[in-house]
Amino acid sequence: MDLQPEELQFLTIPQLLQESISIKKRSPRTFYLITLSFIFPLSFAILAHSLFTQPILAKLDKSDPPNSDRSRHDWTVLLIFQFSYLIFLFAFSLLSTAAVVFTVASLYTGKPVSFSSTLSAIPKVFKRLFITFLWVALLMFAYNAVFFVFLVMLLVALDLNSLGLAIVAGVIISVLYFGVHVYFTALWHLGSVISVLEPVYGIAAMRKAYELLKGKTKMAMGLIFVYLFLCGLIGVVFGAVVVHGGGKYGTFTRTLVGGLLVGVLVMVNLVGLLVQSVFYYVCKSYHHQTIDKTALYDQLGGYLGDYVPLKSNIQLEDLDI
């Protein structure tokens, strides 16, 4: 990052995107290998998931009664595939986050950057991210339970033609998704960066993320909303053309469009991870919390097995303004 730490707090969303994208130029080979090894498989799996599950679902629609051997076999295949997909998605999502956040932090501190050093750091970084993710999953379970209750309420209201109840349930569902879900996603992303760069992880990292988001909540939610919108748009086009477009488009067209959409999603995910990393420094700057680059350098070195002198925190005391 070319800007001084105290200048980062004034970045607008377009400037933040520009600053994040420019980071790739400082170590293009490393980011190319990270993209090829982690982000491309992740992006391909996200889009190809529906391409592989659609034939199985079609067979289930046309299959024998649910208690038949063929139907049970198809359901078993679907469940195994879904479980494998979730494990793959979870693993490569954390791997991509660990690799990008570590690399950006190394560039920030002036630490030598290479793909091999990033790979060496990932095992220890992955453990911290995994613990944070477990807390996120627990909180998301509670959120989804509440969301499901109001979704059922909406369906019941529509079935009973109760306009008032349907409006109330619809408003709450909208708030839960566009407000709580987007905010919680921003909290999770920032907490993931904190888990890598600071000596806290798990619920402590989420609490720290909550404090850092204050004052930058609108920017964070705007960035997350744009990211989710782009991913959703790519998914819709992929489904319409590649998955369900067999009757309208030829094999060449579907293959070409599918390849282009995978490439676009790869770029969206890469830029999203870079923005996620830089946004952490923006929040620290906004709260006038400087970062001890020496301590952060040592923290990153600890992931590589380097000698780490005893330090209580990478964060200095808040500056008095």
Automatic annotation (TrEMBL):
- Protein keywords: Membrane, Transmembrane, Transmembrane helix
Q: Which domain of life is it from?
A: Eukaryota
According to the record, the segments passing through the membrane are: 31-57, 77-108, 129-157, 163-184, 224-244, 256-283
GO cellular component, as recorded: endosome; Golgi apparatus; membrane; trans-Golgi network
Keyword Membrane attributed = yes
- Name of protein: F28K20.6 protein
Organism the protein comes from: Arabidopsis thaliana
